[in-house]
Give the backbone structure.
Amino acid sequence: MKNIKHIFFDLDHTLWDFEKNSSLTFKFLLKKYNLKLSLQDFLKVYMPINFSLWDLYRDEKITKQYLRQNRLKLTFDKLKIIVDNTTIDKISEDYIKHLPDNNFLLTNAITILDYLYPKYNLHIITNGFHEVQNTKIINSGLRKYFNCIIDSESVGVKKPHSKIFQNAYYKSNATSLNDCLMIGDNYEADVMGAINNGFKAIHLNTNNQPLHKDSLIINDLIELKKIL
């Protein structure tokens, strides 16, 4: 890691505490739409459905619109709660609107960014919707740390596709792939996507993914102080 000059961070689950912020948003929406179920029961069903649909979206097998509509519909169907399609659409729109209202970051995110910012050029590569990710970054106070923000919707492909890493490399004005390091929570999208495109990688294993030897693995962002 001695030659690193450019560090590319993933956003959700790496810096921005997606689980906590999403849970708070749904707590608000369940109350707003007077849905008679507990947040815990809802999330227990919703979260695996959302993860599976995001995997399909990342692999270009479903559209953005399909993801947004059906993650809720499938959840309500499985919970055997009748919610009409118009209301589902309204909840989906409200979720996107209000998700950036909550801006909890992962433990030590600001501490490590303050440490890295004077030493490296920092950037973000995120598999997310342009308007939502930008709002998250601004509202959470992260924007000042990063030179380039690359989101999959703007590029037209998602990590681990080579195009998004190539786009990030050129936008960063890096002079060598050896200068570039990707830090993220997803093994396939962040770690292997980076490695297969010439970047170095560090896996922030916040999701209890299987251990591997393809990159360094850390469990807390503060561990970066010992590496960089």
